[in-house]
Amino acid sequence: SLALAQLSSGALAQTAPMAADIGGKFEAPTAGADYVKRVAMIPMRDGVRLYTVIVVPKAALGATGAGKAPILLTRTPYNAAGRAQRGRSPSMLATLPQGDETFVQGGYIRVFQDVRGKYGSEGDYVMTRPLRGPLNATKTDHATDAWDTIEWLVRHVPETNGKVGMLGSSYEGFTVLMALADPHPALKAAVPMSPMVDGWRGDDWFHNGAFRMPTLPYIGSQTTVRGRGDPLATGVHDDYEGMLRAGSAAGYARQFGLDKLTYTKKLFEHPAYDSYWQHQALDRLLGERKLKVPTMTVVGQWDQEDIYGAYAVYEALEPQDRNNDLNYLVVGPWRHSGVNYEGASLGALKFTGDTALEFRRDVMQPFLDQHLKDGAPRADTPPVLSYQTGTNRWQRLQRWPLACAASCPAPAQAVYLQDGFKLSFNTPGAGNAFDEYVSDPAKPVPFVPRPVRMGDPEVWRPWLVSDQRFVSDRPDVLTYVSEPLKAPLTLGGAPVVNLFASTSGTDADWVVKVIDVYPDEVPSQPELGGYQLPLSMDIFRGRYRDSLSAPAAIAAGKPERYRFALPNVNHVLLPGHRLMVQIQSSWFPLYDRNPQRYVPNIFHAQPADYVKATQRVYHTPELPSAIELPIVPAGR
Ligand code: PG9
């Protein structure tokens, strides 16, 4: 037969048995996909090229769609190629991240770019690179890199209509804000989500001067290599144990070689709010510039990483927003970056539906369309959109906050700590002048139940709503509670701590928590019976009570005033619930321990510096410890 004849003559091409099986560049066919993915090395003004992934819907290709699609840009230190690939799929919807779904449905071009020095980009990486100015004498920063990138995109992506929006969460939110410092004219809308704004006051690295230990493994994973560094080989199951054994934060850094990393050195050299931090405070820096781009800043009420910055930026930009159409704030019942995932619950809390999708689909998308799509209708965007928990409903508001010490629709009202571990709106009367506890750095109060698995997302993500009963009866935690409420108590703003306290040491941390205590029984969700839900909590390092930049020892035994704001809250405590305040002096191992003996730099505290101290919290007419609550009167 013919086949046999061909075989014997060797006419059929044969692959040599020993031909190498991994050969040249392989490219899978993409004809069946509904998008094309391009990679460009975009040159910056100093010649450094940044790795950029551009995902274009096929519907925007060719004659019919040419020049019609807007671009959404995210600049990331977290691997642009990976960010642009949730999964491998011929469908753009399945390829891009969950939070991008409405962009895909809306026909947007999506762009992810590695910031300089990370993953595929050239140049040096500088953690949260400061703007050009006192800390950055070079000619480039994230503002210029965003500018140069947008300039290139509008010239080189033929499918675009020339309008660009920027968005991203956390570090990616920080790069959005940086672009606003000197925005390219084609940048028409910005959505910074959970942005890192001030790494000392209350985002990521410190809260009010207390150092957050997860910073150290983060520096390891981000700065040991251009890609993703290895996690620490801690050798312990319980981070509480591992971090306690290491002593100070510097001791922990040394154990893993992290003390050799440049950014660790920078942090350890700047424990106070000195010019290094002040020159990076993005709320102040942006407040000094003209706001030109409509900006919708987004954050979760229980953002466990960047709970400070979004409100600070909104507040700093608000004076420029005379017509209430440039500076928007959105607060959802979310964890850090939760806006980009499913938002029907957080820990034990359940909401009315997928609140994150509701926001993305019904509010963010029309806002972006209005500013980025040619001929799109004006969106009905409220100046402030906030999900009120307790009642579980979205609120469209004209402003934020609703109550505060001055210049708010309602004045803050003090709730006072009372003898007998009570809380009331009356100033304290007769009775014991103070309550006391011994704070022992050898047995710090854990921030979540042990074993503490800080890197476990199940522990870390919802921890700000965790039931506080696991510490409320510790002898080193003071717990004050009101009577069951007869009427709803609505909070809409930032509670302010006004604490009068003394320590037998010469330095001290003060952790204050405002808590909603559920009734003993909650028939609709039994596990919430008696639940102690944290609404707003934070830490303050006592040495900074008079000056954030110039720390000073505390006089042992002398009552001093500690005044600081807690994170914002939008919540109704329902009738039958009780208001609770807890006070403690450690929150470990999230925050490094205060040795309680004053040392110049706590990072380098020695074992002998860690001493027990007796803390007294006062509640007398002269020393009336209180929390100033942002109470919204009924009917507002
Ligand atoms: N919270 C993270 C971060 C932001 C900025 C600097 C360092 C870390 C993040 O989730 O990106």
TrEMBL record:
Segments forming domain Xaa-Pro dipeptidyl-peptidase C-terminal: 365-628
Statement: the UniProt record of this protein carries the keyword Signal: yes
GO molecular-function term, one example from the UniProt record: dipeptidyl-peptidase activity
InterPro entries, A to Z: AB_hydrolase_fold, CocE/Ser_esterase, Galactose-bd-like_sf, Xaa-Pro-like_dom, Xaa-Pro_dipept_C, Xaa-Pro_dipeptidyl-ppase/CocE
Pfam families found in the cross-reference section: Peptidase_S15 (PF02129), PepX_C (PF08530)
Domain of life: Bacteria
Key words, A-Z: Hydrolase, Signal
The keyword Hydrolase belongs to this UniProt entry's keyword annotation: yes
PANTHER family for the chain: COCE_NOND FAMILY, PUTATIVE (AFU_ORTHOLOGUE AFUA_7G00600)-RELATED, PEPTIDASE S9 PROLYL OLIGOPEPTIDASE
Protein's recorded name: CocE/NonD family hydrolase
Species assigned in the record: Pseudoduganella dura
